[in-house]
C-alpha cells in the first residue's frame, strides 16, 4: 500500500510537470504561412537607438524602419521617406511616405521623425549614433508629411547615417503618452510586429497588417528560435526545423553547401575584422609606436584570409574595400611584400630596443572565428619576434577591459563599415569616438583630417583626403583593419524563397525580409 | 516537540546561509569585469552613456542600498526584473523550471538504467569477467570525461548525421512527445554520464560490501539461486547508500545543468542563468543562484527531517 501511494505521488508529480510543460509552445508556431529563422543570439536590449550589437539590430530591422535605406551598390534608396532633397550643403527636406503606418494602425507623421532624431541626440538616451548624425541646428515639420533638417555644418554622411537601423523611427506619440516603452517593447512600421517573446528562447513575429508595401510576400508569421551554437543551427536547418539562418564561419557554410536542398548566399559587407592596439597603457609594449608599427607590419592578413576563411574573403583597409576606394592600398602595411614587411618590423623592434616583445592577444569567446584569427596572428607576428599569448574572455569582460579600463595589449573584434567611406574611419578620432580613449592615442593631424573629410562631397578631393587619412592611420598603427567580414545566409531552398542583397553596408542582413516567401 | 527543537536551529542556520549566499552572489557579480552597459552599448560606451544606463537601472546607488533594496524586494516575493527585457525574472524561472526538471529526470533515468546493472555486474562478477571490465571502463570514463566534451562530440556527430535524434530546438512533451524525446535524449545522455559512473561505483561498492556478509554465505549454503540472492538479499541491502547518492545527484542535476543546457540550446533555468551572466543581467543570476541554494538547503533539511523521523535517537541527545 505504501509503495502504491508513493508511486501514485510520483505519477502525480510527473503528470503535473508535464501539465505545466504543455503550456510551453515549441520554438516554432509552425503553420503553412510561417517561416522560421534560426536566430544566432538574443537581443541585448530593446532600445533601437541605444543597442550597439548586430544581434539586436537584426531583430529591430524586422520591426522598425529608417527614413532611407541602401541598395546593392550602397546607394541611398527611399525608406520611410518617399523622397528627399538636399537644398543646400546643410539643408535637407524629407517627404514621408503616405501610407506608412505603425503596427497599431497610426500613420507615421513628421512628429515621429523629429521625435526620433531628437531622442537620439538627447544625452539621456545614451545613443552612440548621435555622433554620426552631425550637429542638427534645426529640425521642423512644415506639415505632417514633411520634415526639414538644418545642420550646423555640412556632413556628407548624414543621409547614410539615417539609413542605419540605430536611426529607427519610433512611434513618438505612443512613447510620450506612455503606451509604448522603447526600452521594453518593439513597435514600428516595419514588415513585422512582435506577437510573443520568450527571453533567450524564441521570438514570434506576426505580419504587420498596416505595412505600406502591400505587394510584400512576407509570411503571416516569422518564428525565430534562438540557437547560438553553429552546429545546432546547422542540424536544425538540415532537418527542417528552421528555414534560414546566418553564419560567420565559412567552414559551416561550406559544409552546408553540400546539401542539395540548402543554399548558402555569401553577403559581402563593409564590415571588417579589426585589432585594437593599446597605445595608452605604459605597461604595454605597444606604448611605443614603433612596436605597434612592427606588429602591424608583421601581421599576415593573407594568411588570415587563407587559413581562417579558406580564401573566401579579402584583405581589408580602414576605408573598407567594399566601397571600391583605393585610399589605403599604398600604405606600407599593404604595399610592401611579406619579406620587406618582416624586415622592416624587425628593424623597428631593434630600434625600439625590444627584439622579442611579450604581448597578449585578447579574442573574446563570443565567436569561434576570433580565436582562429588570433592563432594565425600569433604565428605571423612571431616571425618578427613577438611572443604572443592568447586569452579568450567573455564579451562583457572584453568590453570592460578594452573600452573602459584599457587593460590589454591587443584585442580582436570587428567594425561595422556602414554605408559611407567616412563613417567607420571616424572611429579613429578619439575626441569623436570617445569610447576609444582608453587605448587610442590622439593624433591632432588625424583628428583634423577626419573632421575635414566629413564635409567633403564624394569626389577626387575627398579621395585625396582619404589617402592622407590612411597614411596617418597606418603610421599610428592603433586600430588595425584585417580582413573583410562576410555574412553567410543559409536557407532551405525547398521550403522558402529568399531575397538578399549581395552587399550590405548597415548589417542589414535581412533587408528584403518582406519578400521572403514560404513554399509550403 | 523533539522534532521541533531539533529542527528550529537548523531552520535558523538555513536562513543565515541563504543570507550569506545572497550577499556573496550580489558582491561577486559586481566584482567581475564588465556590466550591462558594456553589453547593451557594445564597444560604444561613453562615460555619459554608462551613467545614463546606471541611473536607468538603479546601478548608480551605493552597493549597500542596492543590496538592501534587492533583499527587501526578495522578502516580498519579487526576484527583480531582467535588464534586457524589463520583465519579472520570477515568471521566466517558473516558465523554465519544467524544462530543467524534465532534463534532470531523464538524465536520472539514464543514469539509473546504465549505472545500476553495470554496478551490480561489477560487484558480483569475478575480477577477470568481461562485463566487470566493461563496467569499470564505463565508470572510469564517466568520472573523467567532462560533460562539455561528450556534449560537443555528440553535437558534432548528430549535426552531421541526424540518426533520428535532434540537436537543439526544444519542443514541449505535450505539444510533440516524440519530437521532445528526440531533442532531449542527447542532452540527457550527456548530463547523465557522470551520474552513470556515480551510480555504478556506489552500487558496486555497496554490492561488494553486502557480498561479504554472513547472510549471503548462508543463502549460498542453502542453495538459493544466484538471481534470487542478488534480488532478495544483495540489492535490498545495497539500496540504502545508492538511494542516498541518487537523491543528492538529483539535486546536483537540478542546479548543475547549465553547461548542457547551453550546449544544446535547451531553454531551461541553466541556459537562462548563463545568458544572465553573459549579459551581466544581475537580477537573473542573483535569483538563479539563490534558487539553487534554496533547493540544496531544502533537500538537506528534508533529509535531516527524515533522519529524525526514522531514528528516534536523532535530536534526543542520545547516541
TrEMBL record, chain A:
<feature type="signal peptide">
    <location>
        <begin position="1"/>
        <end position="30"/>
    </location>
</feature>
<dbReference type="GO" id="GO:0043190">
    <property type="term" value="C:ATP-binding cassette (ABC) transporter complex"/>
</dbReference>
<feature type="domain" description="Solute-binding protein family 5">
    <location>
        <begin position="76"/>
        <end position="429"/>
    </location>
</feature>
<dbReference type="InterPro" id="IPR039424">
    <property type="entry name" value="SBP_5"/>
</dbReference>
<dbReference type="GO" id="GO:0030288">
    <property type="term" value="C:outer membrane-bounded periplasmic space"/>
</dbReference>
<dbReference type="InterPro" id="IPR000914">
    <property type="entry name" value="SBP_5_dom"/>
</dbReference>
<keyword id="KW-0732">Signal</keyword>
<protein>
    <submittedName>
        <fullName>ABC transporter substrate-binding protein</fullName>
    </submittedName>
</protein>
<dbReference type="Pfam" id="PF00496">
    <property type="entry name" value="SBP_bac_5"/>
</dbReference>
<dbReference type="GO" id="GO:1904680">
    <property type="term" value="F:peptide transmembrane transporter activity"/>
</dbReference>
<comment type="similarity">
    <text>Belongs to the bacterial solute-binding protein 5 family.</text>
</comment>
<dbReference type="GO" id="GO:0015833">
    <property type="term" value="P:peptide transport"/>
</dbReference>
<dbReference type="InterPro" id="IPR030678">
    <property type="entry name" value="Peptide/Ni-bd"/>
</dbReference>
Automatic annotation (TrEMBL), chain B:
<dbReference type="GO" id="GO:0055085">
    <property type="term" value="P:transmembrane transport"/>
</dbReference>
<dbReference type="InterPro" id="IPR045621">
    <property type="entry name" value="BPD_transp_1_N"/>
</dbReference>
<dbReference type="GO" id="GO:0005886">
    <property type="term" value="C:plasma membrane"/>
</dbReference>
<dbReference type="Pfam" id="PF19300">
    <property type="entry name" value="BPD_transp_1_N"/>
</dbReference>
<feature type="transmembrane region" description="Helical">
    <location>
        <begin position="181"/>
        <end position="200"/>
    </location>
</feature>
<keyword id="KW-0813">Transport</keyword>
<feature type="transmembrane region" description="Helical">
    <location>
        <begin position="103"/>
        <end position="125"/>
    </location>
</feature>
<feature type="domain" description="ABC transmembrane type-1">
    <location>
        <begin position="97"/>
        <end position="303"/>
    </location>
</feature>
<keyword id="KW-1003">Cell membrane</keyword>
<protein>
    <submittedName>
        <fullName>ABC transporter permease</fullName>
    </submittedName>
</protein>
<dbReference type="InterPro" id="IPR035906">
    <property type="entry name" value="MetI-like_sf"/>
</dbReference>
<dbReference type="Pfam" id="PF00528">
    <property type="entry name" value="BPD_transp_1"/>
</dbReference>
<keyword id="KW-0472">Membrane</keyword>
<dbReference type="InterPro" id="IPR000515">
    <property type="entry name" value="MetI-like"/>
</dbReference>
<feature type="transmembrane region" description="Helical">
    <location>
        <begin position="137"/>
        <end position="161"/>
    </location>
</feature>
<feature type="transmembrane region" description="Helical">
    <location>
        <begin position="289"/>
        <end position="310"/>
    </location>
</feature>
<keyword id="KW-1133">Transmembrane helix</keyword>
<keyword id="KW-0812">Transmembrane</keyword>
<feature type="transmembrane region" description="Helical">
    <location>
        <begin position="258"/>
        <end position="277"/>
    </location>
</feature>
<comment type="similarity">
    <text>Belongs to the binding-protein-dependent transport system permease family.</text>
</comment>
